[in-house]
Amino acid sequence: MDSDEEEVLLLLALIDSPVKKRIWIHDINRQHRIHGEFHTLYPRLRLDEDRFFNAFRMTTENFDEILNMIKENISKSFTKYREPICPEERLAITLRFLASGDSFRCIANSYRVGCSTVAEIVDEVCDVIWTTLQPIYMKPPTEEMWNLTSEEFYNMWQFPNCLGSIDGKHVTIVCPPNSGSNYFCYLKKFSVVLMAIVGPHYNFLCIDVGGFGKNSDGGIFENSVMGRRFNNGAMNVPRPKLLPRTNDVTPHVLIGDEAFRLQAHVMKPFNQRVSRVDRRKEEYNKRLCRARRVVENAFGLLAQKLRIYFKPMHLKVSSAKKVIKATCVLHNYLRSKTCNTPYLQNMYFTTQQNNAMNNEYQNFETLQLSGDRVRTQFVNFFNP
């Protein structure tokens, strides 16, 4: 058999071989507006407030308010080929994903849409939720905001001059391709780090998302944008002030655990071996840990409200970052609705906020104090 005959036979084999044709819309999904969950179950859920809350982790009033805020940015144009998915359904799909942690395949089957369609909707809507709600519910910090937080921390947790509690949360993800060990953390899983500064009412003040799981919390904070701004004096931190009932002028500080480096603006507990033999230091540790736990509680509330954190995120790292940021700002939004305290109302609605960060270097005495000296002042305050 010569080469020409071989080519002819090869062409005939290719022509006769069955080719699996891809279809634009699966037959099951063509019944989207008849059997889809949005058109069958969703209207009934709106008639039962408890069931709706269990499904979407918010009330119908909250759902409608968020929808009104973002619908212009998630609406799609009508074409002569097909009718787009409406903004209300796009938000419902996204909140179902965040609230339940179900897979894209499961949600696609329920709503009678494509799996890739669900992935695109979640990615886009989470991004819009963050960009729309962040200027209201996670504003860039100002001096007025820090002063409010410091006063409320002292009133609630009896820790003066405290700007917030800081810690990192390892958010489990599926190992990204070609990432090596960058995302593999000490918990023996792959993760990205949510670094957060939390206020006294479990509200997120500042967040940094996307740190490698292999890195320590202290290293991630110091290399983050907010960490560098704190080090450069560009976070609008109020000037040092007297601790209550003392003559010690003390800077405002963040409080963290042993993973952070002791600095003039970051307080951490004493080593257990040191505090065990010194009652004064042990009392300081007790008071600091009592106030610091608000960040742990905030992470717990976030995960209990939005069950996406109970399972590994089967997402690209870029999409996981959008999901994490959207959940944090949704957490703040829902806290403002369910925890109607004067502090939160002033933080989000009545305080005059200047959203421009102060980029000038604030060269006042805070920067001349060592972390050890500041910590000693707090030890003396807690042990009069």
UniProtKB/TrEMBL annotation:
<dbReference type="Pfam" id="PF13359">
    <property type="entry name" value="DDE_Tnp_4"/>
</dbReference>
<dbReference type="GO" id="GO:0005634">
    <property type="term" value="C:nucleus"/>
</dbReference>
<keyword id="KW-0378">Hydrolase</keyword>
<dbReference type="InterPro" id="IPR045249">
    <property type="entry name" value="HARBI1-like"/>
</dbReference>
<keyword id="KW-0540">Nuclease</keyword>
<dbReference type="InterPro" id="IPR027806">
    <property type="entry name" value="HARBI1_dom"/>
</dbReference>
<feature type="domain" description="DDE Tnp4">
    <location>
        <begin position="166"/>
        <end position="332"/>
    </location>
</feature>
<dbReference type="GO" id="GO:0046872">
    <property type="term" value="F:metal ion binding"/>
</dbReference>
<dbReference type="GO" id="GO:0004518">
    <property type="term" value="F:nuclease activity"/>
</dbReference>
<dbReference type="GO" id="GO:0016787">
    <property type="term" value="F:hydrolase activity"/>
</dbReference>
<keyword id="KW-0539">Nucleus</keyword>
<protein>
    <recommendedName>
        <fullName>DDE Tnp4 domain-containing protein</fullName>
    </recommendedName>
</protein>
<comment type="similarity">
    <text>Belongs to the HARBI1 family.</text>
</comment>
<keyword id="KW-0479">Metal-binding</keyword>
